[in-house]
Design goal:
homodimer, TIM Barrel
């Protein structure tokens, strides 16, 4: 039984893209439910400018008021030194840096080139040196860019190398707009796992074109054990209208549990949290197990 | 480059579950578009009682009026001798028999036990003996039953053996209510492929719990090359309310094409057909590529 780690991103990647701001107390309640459901890591919020991402304008309040579960690593996205200082003041366990493998996407996302963003990380990392904070480096558009198209594997490998040189403990390969195919995931991850065995490697998939869980299967086959997912499958994709967001946490846990992987996450608690999230948002969630039930939820034949 | 065969089931398994009857000329137009899009096989209709399945009451008319493409195998579901006679009178290439591995499910579906259904097949097969018609044997609930739960592998293997004894050319393992996990698919298919190399083996998945394309990946890894799928992902599941139906043809073809498998199906034509189907039905379709676009559909960064 291989251990797989479930890393929840709904509070950040999910809610960031919602039309509506979720009131802070309800956001905290959601995060507490997720902590209690046994996710291994949770991206709680993002310490960006409240103007850039108004939905996460309550970052400090949320981070300080949630109930911490010692089995959960609490992480937050930070764009720069200012974000790092805010995150450290809230006592995060980990900060998550983000750069796009695609220069065009990075320019669109943060107004700077990929190289400039990396340069900016140096002062952030320097500040963090004597703080007890883990550093994760995320690489957006690792499997393709909606503007540039294919991203060469060597580009991704060299960015991982840069993150390692900066002192990152882990890296995340993010399929920002759901372009990865299972074959591509297997091939790239095989190389990453063999070259960077000192780093924790996370896969972050969006289910934009329905390949999300198939990509997880091939990631595991290549040796990856850490997966980001979003409760209810929330989180949009600005370049793929009408499509779903991140892969859905409870659908992922459901699949892996019934494939006999070892998980800390509790499926029933996740389903409860997903129903709670469904009530907070004003639309149907893409997650499917919350609607269809678990494969072990049997029906009484006499009712049909 | 391995050749994978795409078998379309929207005209039967998809439309059967729709609330609305699609007018016959539009159904024929849809089927003609699918023939032109290069699917390898198509389940055109079902020769059942019009009372049981009113949506398919135009079976003869549809089967006789479609434009045949010689590269496509046209198949139809038949429940009994009467259905076989109707199908043969319409010159089908193949008839598809169906029985559930789960006795409870079979009783619910056709009011007879699995054994009684098999007994009934004998006169059907006997009638077909001197007709130039291929015979496919489908096994519903092969990966689990919503009433009984787990289905032992030996049960499925013995039903395949029975179909072979009856003279079937191929068999279909159907995951009727979307209960299969990728691990289970790999394990069962490995056994089936090694024992029944004289039979064409098809996998028929529903995406009820999001595992559909992941199951395809593991089916291919076990050696299966034939997959049923439904345009737009149409087709409900009476025991899983709110969940999607069959795996979506264009999403399947999109994934396999960009994994470099050899396919006869043309993705752009399938997407056109899916948009046509979307206009015929009064609701959103579950298929995702039709909404998000192909991974090669790039965007102009200056528009964002």
């Amino acid at each position: 039984m291989e251990r797989i780690f479930i890393q929840e991103v709904a509070p950040r990647d999910g809610l960031q893209n919602e039309d509506a701001f979720i009131p802070t107390p309800k956001k905290i309640e959601l995060i507490n439910q997720l902590s209690n459901a046994g996710v291994d890591k949770m991206e709680v919020t993002s310490f960006v400018s409240p103007k850039a991402v108004p939905n996460l304008r309550d970052a400090e309040e949320v981070m300080k008021m949630i109930k911490r579960n010692t089995d959960v690593t609490y992480t937050a996205l930070i764009p720069n030194l200012k974000g790092a200082k805010r995150a450290v003041s809230c006592n995060v366990d980990e900060v998550n840096l983000l750069v796009s493998a695609s220069n065009t996407h990075n320019l669109k996302n943060v107004g700077r080139s990929t190289e400039e963003t990396f340069e900016g990380f140096r002062e952030t990392i320097s500040f963090l040196e004597d703080k007890r904070v883990l550093i994760n480096g995320s690489i957006g558009t690792s499997f393709g860019c909606p503007f540039e198209g294919s991203i060469p594997e060597r580009r991704v490998l060299s960015l991982i190398e840069k993150y390692r040189e900066l002192g990152a403990n882990g890296i995340t390969l993010a399929d920002t707009t759901g372009m990865a195919t299972p074959k591509q995931v297997y091939e790239l991850c095989k190389k990453v796992i063999s070259r960077f065995h000192d780093l924790d490697v996370t896969l972050h998939f969006h289910n934009t074109r329905g390949m999300g869980l198939a990509n997880v299967i091939e990631g595991i086959r290549a040796g990856v054990t850490r997966f980001d997912a979003s409760l209810g499958g929330v989180g949009g994709c600005p370049f793929a209208p009408g499509a779903t967001g991140n892969i859905c946490t409870e659908d992922l846990v459901h699949m892996l549990q019934f494939m006999d992987y070892e998980l800390n996450a509790n499926l029933d608690k996740l389903l409860d949290a997903s129903h709670y999230l469904g009530k907070l948002l004003s639309h149907d969630l893409p997650g499917q197990v919350a609607k269809a039930g678990k494969i072990t939820d049997l029906h009484d034949a006499s009712n049909f």
